[in-house]
Amino acid sequence: MASVLVGGAAAGALPAQAQAAAPNRNAPGSFADLAEKLLPAVVNISSSQNAPQRQQGPRPEIPQFPPGSPFEDFFRDFFDRQQQEQPQRKSTSLGSGFVIDATNGYVVTNNHVVQDADEITVILQDDTNIKAELVGRDSKTDLALLKIKTSHPLVAVPFGDSDAMRVGDWVLAIGNPFGLGGSVTAGIISARQRNIDAGPYDDFLQTDASINRGNSGGPMFNLNGEVIGINTAIFSPSGGSVGIGFAIPSNLAKQVVAQLKDYGKTRRGWLGVRIQAVTPEIAESLGLPGHKGALVASVTPDGPAAKAGIQAGDVVIKFDGKEIDEMRRLPRVVAETSIDKAVPVEVWRKGKSQTVQVKVGELEAAEEQGLLAAGPEDKQQPGDKAPAQKPVESLGMKMTAITPELRQQYEIKPDMKGVVITDVTSNSTAAEKGLRAGDVIIEVGQEEVRKPEDVAAKVQKAKEQNKKSVLLLVDRKGDLRFVAIPLS
């Protein structure tokens, strides 16, 4: 008979060694002792932004009076008073944070809590108000570091290991919902490694502990009293908690906070590639065992990857000895790598793996220089005007060579070479994969194509080789991506 939970204890007791292995994973009879210990380290954040009153239009003209008229001075004084700048109003936001260094007064919160703030105030548990200095902030992970100076004794909490948390583990969330002051909620880890499209390094912990507006920037604790997450976002159609909250894992936050403390900004590693996910169809067309890794769609000229010889069409399967089991793991692994460090990168290229050495660059420096991953650098030869041809049909698409008229119609770059799609049959596999008129096919099976017959021939060759899909490199107004089209 299955075990039944009665008053928090299971009828079927766990083996002694299992209880010893995870003593802090079982819910205590009360969270009161833990909450009492942690509450002094959690602070409220009040940030305000000055917003000048909007002027009510141009100054009206003063009526004309005879020289020396007493009305002249009266109206001049009246209009001058009206045009004086109105008092500034303040827009205020409330959030949460926590002290990580009691000696130096460092406080961690969310970037969106203090973004664009003219004044930041940290409010301790005993309602002590302290003006805070913004040390640095990072919009990509939504983290900010503050510093306060006070003779008031502070209580700090340590970061824990978020990777050690398992789905089902108990957690405490402490914050300032709706500006009410310190508030404690309990729940479990509902899921790990959630991607909610909040930024390039999404790796959120999900919890059912109640998180509401004002909890942003507050800590999520394990039962050892260690911060394993920073509460950041909720999923809610109504705006209130529905039991789906998200926290930045501490292992991601620790490095960002350390960089903000040392440099006042982040200094992330940079590879210089634009990537996409490896689907089962793409993996099959590349001969890659298992659909893992990050497919390189384009490479930034003169970037670290380009200098190391990484090419569009390569699949990064290992970076600095770390497995890249899915696409979105690569940006985080690269970002966490020391700048100027030479690392081995294992890529899958044309049916086999090979390793190249890459000297990691700095992402922030690349952003300042406006460097972006770009497509092939082939230059159109002067006067290269493809003659009009009869469209060729294949894979449910009509294709033709690029003509000046088609370049203008579909906004195709002057230096772009390939085959343009002019029509896609509805309900075809090409339509299901999102291809549409105006897309330019640059490669088929990782080989360049210049005319529609090239595409048809390579598709036919893939069929004769009993391949299940064929890989296309497609450009859509400068956006390069690989598309695997099933051949069945």
What does this protein structure show overall?
The chain contains twelve helices and 29 strands. With 488 residues, it is of the alpha+beta class. β4 and β5 form a beta hairpin. The chain is elongated and about 75 Å long. The chain has four domains: 36-49 and 90-148, Thrombin, subunit H; 162-263, Thrombin, subunit H (Beta Barrel); 269-368, PDZ domain (Pdz3 Domain), CATH 2.30.42.10; 392-486, Roll (Pdz3 Domain), CATH 2.30.42.10. Residues 1-23 and 373-388 have low confidence and may be disordered. The strands form six sheets. Strands 23, 24, 25, 26, 27, 28 and 29 form a seven-stranded antiparallel sheet that branches. One of its GO terms (molecular function) is peptidase activity. Keywords: Hydrolase, Periplasm, Protease, Repeat, Serine protease, Signal, Stress response. It catalyses: Acts on substrates that are at least partially unfolded. The cleavage site P1 residue is normally between a pair of hydrophobic residues, such as Val-|-Val. Residues 47-56 have a biased composition (Polar residues). Residues 260-327, 395-450 form the PDZ domain.
